Amino acid sequence: RTLKARTxxxxxxxxxxxxxxxxxxMTGAGISTSAGIPDFRSPDTxxxxxxxxxxxxxxxxVFDISYFRNNPLPFYTLAQELFPGKYRPTxxxxxxxxxxxxxxxMKLFTQNIDCLEREAGVPDDxxxxxxxxxxxxxxxxxxxxxxxxxxxxxIREKSVPRCLEDGCGGLVKPEIVFFGExxxxxxxxxxxxxxxxxxxxxxGTSLSVQPFASLPGFCTDSxxxxxxxxxxxxxxxxxxxxxxxxxxxxxxxxxLAGALGWLDELEALWAK
Length: 272
Ligand code: OAD
Ligand code: ZN
Hints:
With 272 residues, this protein is of the alpha/beta class. 28% of the residues lie in helices and 15% in strands. This is SIR2-domain-containing protein.
């Protein structure tokens, strides 16, 4: 059951022949750049290259829990730009939804906090938000949930919200996963799923943050892993059945949809 051609056509063939029907998808910030959201590590356009105004000791400090404890303001200065709502899903997001509609999507693991997968129509129970999301907020000390409307106000006003619990006064933050924090338990409960997959598609991520970066490694050797990304990352390409589709992910996804005979359907789904 090996992949004869390490090409987009070879992958499409697998799906068309029904030999790939448990697909795991792994995504990162690169699938949302064409929606207008910068990624983190692209040299000039990435978020980390554009944080001079925050005077951070190192760029990733803005999402570091120890740094946040002492200095939460940089995060709240930036939060408005990260807050979901004003962006539209890309055709790559719609492609994930199309996989779901065709009954092929086993699970989507995303590092993104922009909620665009959900907005594109992928149902909640298919999505593992490995780095959390802005959907909930709580105190970093006593863990008490914090009201949504007050969080929106804080983000709008670039002010730092504090826990309302008597005598706590701890810092409140959206439940996005910072460096130094645990990933949600559902990540660990599902991280072995790639073992059961018969196709893996990795898109728009530098695979540079653990433990997410270890996910493609859970695929068995006989599971083709397709990387649709600007650059080669995470050792994908080293296994015999790995397929590299380097370049813009919207373009790569259109190519794959074309090879599957799904392009019109995809464009229509995206235009909805
Ligand atoms: P990165 O910024 O590290 O990587 C984005 C990847 O997508 C890079 O390999 C880019 O070359 C590629 N890329 C960008 N635009 C693209 C496009 N239009 N088409 C194809 N590829 C494109 O983002 P992530 O891998 O998501 O965590 O970063 C992982 C984590 O690091 C984030 O979840 C965030 C960050 O710190 C936390 O904040 C906890
Ligand atoms: Zn508290």
